[in-house]
Amino acid sequence: MAAGTGAGTGLAVRALPASPNWYSSRCSDASSDGRLFGFAARHRVCLLDVSGAAPAFYGELIGHTERISGFAFCRCPGQGRLCASSSDDGSIKVWDSGSLSALLEYSLHQHAISALHWSPLVKDLIVSGDEKGVIVCYWHNRSDSQQFFPEPRTVFCLTCSPHHENLVAIGYKDGMVVIIDISRKREVVHRLRGHEDEIHCLAWCPVPGEERLPAWQDEAAPSEEGKVPNGEVAQDTATKKGCYLASGSKDQTLRIWSSTRGRSVMTLKLPPTKRRGGAVDPAVKERIWLTLLWPAGRASELISSAFGGELLLWNLAQPGKRKWTLLGSSEGQNHSRIVFNLSSVKHQDRELLFSISMDRDVKCWDLSTLDCSWTMPSLGGFVYSLAFSPVDTGCLAIGVGDSMIRVWNTLSMNNIYDVKTFWQSIKSKVTALSWHPTKEGSLAFGTDDGKVGIFDTLSSSAKNKPPQISSTYHKKTVYALAWGPPTPPLISGEESEQPSVTLYSCAGEGIVFQHNPWKLNGEANDINKVIRDTNSIKHKLPARTEISWKPDGKLLALGNEDGSIEIFQAPNLKLLCTIQQHHKLINAIRWHHEHGTQPELSYLIASGSINATIYVHNLKSVVENSSENPVTITEPFRTLAGHTAKITSLSWSPHHEGRLVSACYDGTAQVWDVMKEEPLCNYRGHQGRLLSVQWSPVESDCVYTGADDFSVHKWHISKQEHTRPPQGKKSIELEKKRSIQPKVKAKKKKKPLGKSPGKQDANDAMNGDDSMKEMLLEENGVSDHEGEKEAQEAELTDKVSVTVSRDTSSCDNSAFSLPKPFVTQKAAPVKKDPPKEKPTPDASLKKRKPRSILPFSTLMDHRSKEELHQDCLRLAACLKTKDNNEDVSPDLKDCIHLGLFTDRDSLHKMIDMEGKHHLENGHAELFQQLMLWKGDMKGVLQAAAERGELTDQLVAMSPMVGYQAWVWTVEAFAKQLCFQEQYVKAASHLLSIHKVYEAIELLKVNNFYREAIVMAKARLRPEDPILKDLYTSWAALLEKDGHYSMAAKCYLGASSPYDAVKVLSKKGDVTSLKTAAELALISGEEELSATLSLRCAQDLLLSRNWVGAQEVLQQHKTLFGQRLVFCLNEVLCRCLSERNPCERKSPVPPCYHSWELNREASFFDMVTEVWQNVLGMDTTEQATCAQEQLRRIEHPPSTSNTHPKQVLFHVSHDLALAGLSCHLGMWDEAVKSILGAVTRSFDAGNFTLLQEICSIILPEGCDDLRDKLDSTNSQSMDACRSLEGFVAYRLLYDLWWNPPKDSPGLQKAVLAPVPCPSEQTALEESCISGDPSPEETVQTAAEMDENLCSTAEVPQCETQSDSRTDSVDLVDRQSQLKGCQVLLSEEMAALQNTQRDIAEVQETLAEMIRQHQQQRNNLQENTDGNTQGSNLEQSSETESDKPCSDSDQMNCKDEAKQPVTLPELTKQLLNAKQKLAEFPDNLKVFPFPDVLECCLVLLHLGCQCPPELQGEALALLRKHGSAGVYRRAARSFLT
After folding, report:
1. Least CB-packed of 24, 262, 600, 707 within 10 Å?
2. How far is the C-alpha of 462 from the C-alpha of 1186, rounded, in Å?
3. Are 1388 and 1319 within 8 A, CB to CB?
4. Which residues touch 1375 (CB under 8 Å, ≥6 apart)?
5. Nearest Cα to 246, choosing from 199, 187, 286, 185?
């Protein structure tokens, strides 16, 4: 299905777009020609092409920075492409939907815009309203505007009249409707009162006039009846003729208003429609949005939304109560939640209605049948995960941040958007998905809150069937899920007892659980336990971030936070090897599929991390020669470089071998040819960072990607215009785009209460900082870290308050037991107010300390004489009655101060009275002193503890109440101090009552690690496990914050030097690596130290610091071989830079050793001298040992995409082996190594390097090397012949590129664009591509090592003649050319021809399969009727248009158009393979330059070439040069 023309070829063919915005009166609209339907989705507008039977994704309008609140198309004839949108960023933009570009923008509102409409009558008038009630009319053709302020209320919706260009109806939040005339000064025409709540929508009747319909309860005069509205005499003005207006409100009613009389003529109450699944109780205030649409040309029919997603068609002319019919006859056609917008359009002969709803579906209805024509699902969150079902082909599961899973049947014939939604029991972002490998419809999911569950997507009642949820939750986000064979302890003796596959989940806290799918409610197993037991590991295991099982279930790959990848063997998880390559958190690991023609490819494993480079490793040798001890791999098999941000997801093509697609934060997806390290195609259709990718299992040309722009795109590889990721600039633009992404208006952020260091942790738990896979960005598109954290904290404050609290109180049987141990302070959700300032009625009292501790009685004793006399009398009476044992006389009750002079009870009353007085005046300490006198200390302590007012003084006095009370008081005081965030002081108090462990735990929980360690070291036994735990927890925290050296000190404190080394090397810069290596050496981790030293040395090599590199390497005996390589590399680089001083200066000056080089000797002798004198290689044993070390290292073959420094290093490795072999007199080995170095530079397409190496190593050719060989060893003779071939090849090009001075004829010939030689004809390039720009490297069939030839390296000496050849005359040149005789080998030509044939047949076969698939896909795509001519033709065109399409394929199009049948091809292939088998094996082992290419060059040289050579060349060309490539090359080259 063709994507919209307005949107370029790079667009998605199909997409699940972002969801329409909610709660907006008009944020979707259809264009008047019925072609496009647009809706606002966050800060973009998504356009669908709705002209076909099914909707197609057309494109997006991008430019606003915040949520779009309104969107409308222009309805005027001829202007249908224009549309307008308003946004919370305050601007309104006018767009051209054809080109998807903004035409103009204006910002006239001061407040948030809440409604927008494009006048249907005035083609350039846009009317908008804002939250404060201001209405702006803007005429964009003349950039004129006018403001109105009819009512100081919040505008909810507005609609321009279709019959009168000056009338606008406005609906407000409080239920008021106003009609204004924008041409008048006093603008309000009518205020229509009647609704009691928000007006959601206004619609004018499409038919002018207000005829009376039978059902309308109207008290108009009967005389008006029967008048035809059009024939009427215009009564007063056009307005008088009038027109009805309909309004829908939150008060659940629709009203029809007369615009002439300004009053309501009909009120319709929403019926309580029976939702499928029970009636709605009208008393319950349901969530409701009442939107309306008055279909064109129908005066008496109105469509409205109803409760819960139904749509109703009202027939206003129908008598009786029930005037409505329900749209959508069959089950499941209706929306399931409220509908926000309706818009309609006439298309061809049908009238269509579009609706958008809270259920995130866009629906299209046919108004003639009232049935739903199609449903387009949409997504309300980031697309975190995509997964194709291995059983139900084409069934794509999508994990989205809106807490729902979509299952898209991408192969459905009748509905291309056949999507089921699963939401039960999820309640959080869906971050990981994985289908059961054999059981259909069994889908495992993982969420942001750590939940793991399994849905049955097939069951007929699936709509309501909740998933099974594992009872084991992760503490953080689930990153990855994988089904794999059971590992212990799930493997039991009896086979029948266990499931064949179990579910593994990996999450943000770094743990992998194994869940038993048959018993999800049982406990899941942490697989680290098995790994520890099987491999007897003592050190801390790294945090796991990714998990991937090899498809055959034999190997498990775990990706770690430190960038390492560990490979384990099932079932006991024996560690086979560790891949140390990424050094940053691993985001994705994928094994190559098993079903290719080359079984060895199934051992390829691709991985991506927070670093932008993708590495592919080949584990075949590791698995087959598994040693006792695990090996460490530091050399990648292939390196795919080009992305500029972190890699989030990878997927191998199931249709090809070695094709990989990657998704990246740089906003693009990239398809790679892994074996050639070549980027093939780059997709840039998303508007955000990519989070997930899957290659279609059905269509080899299709890929599905998901991104943080809330959408899934399906796109064709062959239709993309870019081949490689954007470098820099596009990424920067993306960052810019991202920075303007809408910040969703957070509800006023609640500041997390009392933010203590302890709480901080809890919040970080969810903040994806780099140490965690920070894919879990806030759903609302806040993207930078800070924003992300803020938004999450705001969202999380509720969730966070209940963090896991560890109960650490030791058994405490005291009578004063506390309710809960305070150690879990971290969990305390509320911050208690600090001790309240006691209320003081009189400020002066507070300042002046009372002189006496008994101020009240003192005051009473300083009254007037009369009153004191009274007191005496009362006292006497009191004593008298006491003697007589009578009750105390009642009047003493008022004289409490007399308690001083009577009995103890009265005294107590007086003390209580005084104490109360002190408390009221805020003198708690005086109150406590009084109570102490009274002897009631226990009460004081309890009261103070309850009020949180304990002080040091009280605690000091508490022992007088007894030991238990003292202990209780100290605990209470510690708890109080925790509330006041004085954790250290609290811990000291706990120490005083010997609660050492509690004190340490308190400090630890609140991140006072330093203090906790001091306390623990001082008080506990050195072997106490608490101490180690403190060190490791602190180290983990420091590591997370990037304080690596401090973390290393902690690990050393915990005596685990291994972890210290790991954490130090994490930073990955040279100094860190160097220190880590030395540290590993000191602590006896020899092997680890060597690995790190080598890494460090390689980094130093990149900055051309050989001195530093040798220093690092010299500490390790095991790296002696590497020292030799580095030494040779240095000498080689010095030689190269002396030979080519003009080479572009590198910004870093090289740091060479000041070695004396013996320039007289040959290269190998010179190097060997340095090895012996400087590196101390004295004995043969040392040399043999070094040779062994170097032989063990296998470097992958170079390709044209390998970095030049890397090529040079690998060449140095080959030459070092050769040098050692020469030194040990093993010439046969030496030849092979030299040949290795030469072919490596040749494979890398670096011809200059090949030239230089040949002239440095073999300045005199290969003769004396041949003499030293054992002529009976056929293999070394063949290697030597191959080497001679390359030396001659270099000579041939030297002569061709440096013509003699006196030959003007030749000079001209050379000035033609000179192609660069490669394994294939150098010439073929010039004829195929016209001129050999490095972009168009053309590959041909006969490539022997499948390498591209690249012209990037044409030497600079093309046209200027080189001084070396000045004096050489023609004769000399001819004799030199005779040396090229070796190139004209008859049998090599025949062999290369056969290999070319085989490759050609294989290519044709692949092409046939591709075409077959394309035909199948086209058949599917064309079921909707728009066939696009002959599919075969079409597919062959697209193939040949591809820039990277293979030249031989083009030439077969050229020469032979007749189709070949499959049996014929198979026969050809068999014949060719038989032919190949007839050649002696020794010919096939070593590479050789392309013979026919050399023939062509020789013939091109013309008179310089000896005639006998010319004859030979011609004969070979005639015999073998039948391939079209050579025919054409000869034509353009030799004529």
Report:
1. 600
2. 66
3. no
4. none
5. 199
**Is residue 529 over pLDDT 60?**
yes
- Name the residue among 114, 293, 137, 265 with its Cα closest to residue 201: 293
Burial class (CB in 10 A: 0-12, 13-18, 19+), 1531: exposed
1472/697 Cα distance (integer angstroms): 32
Show Cβ contacts of residue 1148 under 8 Å, excluding neighbours closer than 6 positions: 1103, 1104
Q: Output the DSSP codes for 102-167.
A: EEEEE---SS-EEEEEE-SSSTTEEEEEETTS-EEEEETTTTEEEEE-S-SS-EEEEEE-SS-TTE
pLDDT computed for residue 737 by the predictor: 57
CA–CA distance, 145 with 818 (Å, rounded to integer): 72
Alpha carbon distance 942, 785 (integer Å): 48
What's 1112's DSSP letter? H
Which of 1168, 1170, 1164, 1236 shows the shortest CA–CA distance to 1207? Answer: 1236
Q: Tokens in use for 670?
A: 């990239």
Rounded CA gap, 462 and 441, in Å?
10
Q: Tokens 């006969």 label which residue?
A: 1342
Give 12-70 as a DSSP string: -SEEE-BPPPSS-SB-EEE-TTSSEEEEEETTEEEEEE-SSSS-EEEEEEE--SS-EEE
pTM (predicted TM-score): 0.69
Closest CA to 774 of 762, 785, 786: 785
User: CA–CA separation, 895 vs 871, rounded Å?
Assistant: 8
Calpha distance 308→336 (Å, rounded): 6
The partner residues of 264 in beta bridges, in order of sequence, read: 257
Cβ-contact 566, 499 below 8 angstroms: no
Query: Which residue type sits at 246?
Result: A
pLDDT at 1344 over 70: no
Sheet holding 14-16, edge to edge: 14-16, 712-716, 702-707, 690-695
Query: What residues have CB less than 8 Å from 325, skipping those under 6 apart?
Result: 312, 313, 315, 370
Please state, as a whole number, how many other Cβ atoms lie within 10 Å of the Cβ of residue 837. Answer: 8
Q: Is the pLDDT of residue 817 over 60?
A: no
3-state secondary structure 1385-1416: CHHHHHHHHHHHHHHHHHHHHHHHHHHHHHHH
Q: Please tell me the predicted confidence (pLDDT) of residue 1136.
A: 84
Cα 194 off chain centre by:
52
d(C-alpha 485, C-alpha 499), whole Å: 9
User: What pairs with residue 1060 in β-bridges?
Assistant: none
Tell me the three state secondary structure of residue 264. strand
**Residue entry with tokens 């979509």:** 406
Phi, psi (5° rounding) for residue 445?
Answer: -135, 155
**Over 50: is that where the pLDDT of 810 sits?**
no
d(CA 604, CA 616): 7
The stretches of 1067-1105 forming alpha helices (DSSP H) are 1070-1082, 1086-1102
* 1124, 1342, 1346, 1398, 1468 from 1471: Cα distances, Å: 48, 17, 22, 9, 5
Contacts of 1305 (CB under 8 A, 6+ apart): none
pLDDT band at residue 280 under the 50/70/90 scheme: very low
